[in-house]
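Reopening this one. Same input as before:
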Amino acid sequence: MGVRPSSHFAPPVNAPLGPIERFAEHCAELERSRLNLGSHQPIFKLRSALEESGLHVFMAKLDSKLAGMYVFAPSFGYCILVNRSHRRERRRWTIAHEYGHYLFDRDKPGIDLIKAPTRKSESEKFADSFAAALLMPATGVQQRFYEEYERCGDFVVSNLLRMAEYYGVSLPAMALRLEAMDLIGKGSWEFLKRSGANLSALKEMAGMQSLEEEDSVDLYPERYKLLAVQAFVEDKISEGQLARLLRCTRLEAREIVEETSCISDEGNNSFVPVSLSRSLLRSRESEM
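Same output, byte for byte:
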């Protein structure tokens, strides 16, 4: 059987009258349930989880001002391009934010900048609120907040740092989420920003170490690579086209083909290309 684009796309949403932020929170809860991500825990492998549902996440080094881009191709799926140069927390936010666009306005391709416009559109408000709720679910955040408070008898900057690390988000994202939930004072993040405190120094003072990357930072999704290799094995594209699709040299492309869709003959170390759509029901003895 060949590799086919996933058909398990999330249905688009239609926003009712009322606060768009509340609706985005509701949609994030539904998506967590639909994707079996749990109702309160962090999503440690966000990219992997969303790619399994049919999303295609590509990464590339972009201008530092660019966060990501998104487009929906009906015959292939929803594609996101994320700035690989950004920190882990920023990349996770971009993926969640673009997924919000997929739900809200998938037919409108767009580009997201690091510095958002002062006046946000409804789709941007939805995407931001959706990302916050998906990465930092209200139930889990509230539970974790009270655990931190009970442990220390207060909720201080080090508690905020630990929560941000736990959910894999940036310090401002965590602070603003807690402010929105009325768990910490309004303006807490603005105070920290004005203080000019260095995040690395704060983490070091709190005895924290940066977590290792848990999710894939590959340039393209696994499904995309399989589709490209399948097209090459079936003589639908040339080796040069395959190399361009996989963003590598021809030699590297050949190695990827061997690793992905070839069977090694242990007797003579030769390789026999195998199409992923090739039937194994008929005898192949005559071909050996």
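So the earlier flakiness isn't reproducible anymore. For the record, Confidence is low (pLDDT under 50) at residues 1-7, 262-288.
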